[in-house]
Specification:
Elements lengths: L17 H12 L7 H8 L3 H13 L11 H8 L11 H14 L3 H14 L3 E3 H14 L7 H15 L23 E7 L2 E6 L9 H12 L2 E5 H11 L4 H14 L3 E6 L2 E7 L5 H10 L2
Antiparallel strand pairs: 1-3, 2-3, 4-6, 5-6
Length: 293
């Protein structure tokens, strides 16, 4: 198991405009733009405790690399030619961010819930106590040092706020304080028992999922020339996107029919996708095709 990472967000979930603000600051001043706290507060238009949180979410969404430079995705979405979707208005962008967040594991709780918990408990329902106990068991299995209950509770709260905002009656200025991922509808609350809320992963077919986004994620996850089993896809991308098995099959078939670089075999009980790509630029071109650039 990878080294599990918790906290770092200062209890703040990612707000709608934070990624754009952070990327533009780095584009203008480099990562050093965060080093002067007073200046970065003015540049970002947030409180001082939120400055560190913005840096954290830039890393968690893989918009800043370990070299503290903007990644290819960050430049495509927010910078080059004005950015293809700098205000995160396209649902395909949100799916891309969801993939990056789960794959990166800078914020371990996201993959732990979407992939590990859903696989091991074979359940789409969970509450805070179940998740905290599950994470503690994973920490005990790993070489991680023990993590405090307070830290895990904070991580769970941030996780929920990333996907669920409670009852919303109308669009308002409060939406600017919501996470962009709420629009994906991945999580809902199904009932309350006293103070404990039970949540549900909304596993559906997602027949309108953008094939280019899926193809990009498939290559990014498994490589240009790879044979990927249905099980591997189900336990990675299928789980990240909360897809049913049927929905995943439909998406693979749509991808195969539009892009011959993806070959789907379903015979003798073996289901797998073969990725036949020699051009390193093909992955990025999938996104350019999607955004029409």
């Amino acid at each position: 198991m990878h080294n599990l990472k918790f906290s770092g967000h200062d209890t703040f979930h990612c707000r709608q405009q934070w990624l754009l603000k952070g990327v533009e600051l780095i584009d203008n001043k480099g990562f050093n733009g965060f080093h002067n706290l007073e200046e970065s507060i003015l540049d970002l238009g947030v409180g001082k405790n939120m400055v560190q949180a913005i840096q954290y979410w830039l890393r968690a969404f893989s918009l800043v690399g370990t070299n503290k430079q903007l990644t290819e995705i960050a430049n495509l979405l927010f910078i080059e030619n004005g950015g293809v979707d700098k205000y995160l208005e396209d649902e395909g962008t949100l799916w891309l961010l969801q993939y990056l967040l789960c794959k990166n594991e800078e914020a371990s709780i996201f993959k732990l819930i979407f992939v590990d918990y859903a696989r091991e408990r074979i359940s789409t329902e969970f509450d805070e106590r179940q998740i905290l106990n599950f994470i503690k068991s994973k920490i005990a299995e790993s070489s991680n040092r023990e993590t405090s209950e307070t830290t895990l509770v904070s991580d769970f709260k941030v996780f929920i706020q990333s996907y669920f905002s409670g009852i919303r009656t109308s669009k308002s200025l409060e939406d600017d304080f919501n996470s962009p991922l709420i629009e994906l509808g991945l999580i809902s609350a199904i009932h309350r028992d006293g103070g404990l809320v039970t949540y549900k992963l909304n596993k559906v077919d997602r027949v309108d999922f953008p094939v280019e986004i899926f193809g990009y994620c498939l290559i990014d996850k498994f490589g240009n020339n790879a044979a990927v089993s249905f099980k591997e896809m189900r336990e990675s991308l299928g789980s990240f996107f909360v897809l049913t098995n049927e929905g995943l099959e439909i998406l693979i078939e749509r991808l195969r029919s539009q892009y011959p670089e993806f070959i789907y075999h379903d015979d003798a009980g073996t289901r797998q996708v073969q990725i036949k790509v020699d051009d390193e630029g093909f992955k990025l071109r999938l996104l350019q095709n999607y955004y029409g650039v």
